[in-house]
Fold:
Amino acid sequence: MLYRLSADTLVLLHLAFILLVLFGGLLLLKWRAALLIHLPAVAWGLAVECLHLECPLTGWENRMRAAAGDAGYQGGFIEHYIWPLIYPAGLTPQIQIGLGLIVLLLNLGVYGYVIWRWRR
Structure:
């Protein structure tokens, strides 16, 4: 029971980290110090994705699930939990590119606005 609860908690932590990577730039609108958290998170997220590194949270979660008697899962957190949410059946490459551009433009817009405000 405790191992399963720990594994589920890690899933939530993992999701929170992914949301921080994607939308943490918005925190800069309120707290300038969020830059010290967001930029390293973005760097780590990009490194894991671009360099195909295994996130330590995935391995830790799988060990917790195995200790709880569950099978765990193959692949990483993204492929198991997030991929089906982000890339449902029928999603075209054009839509994927559009969604990626929205995320990129959102973060560039937020950072641009924050930099503009800081300079004023």
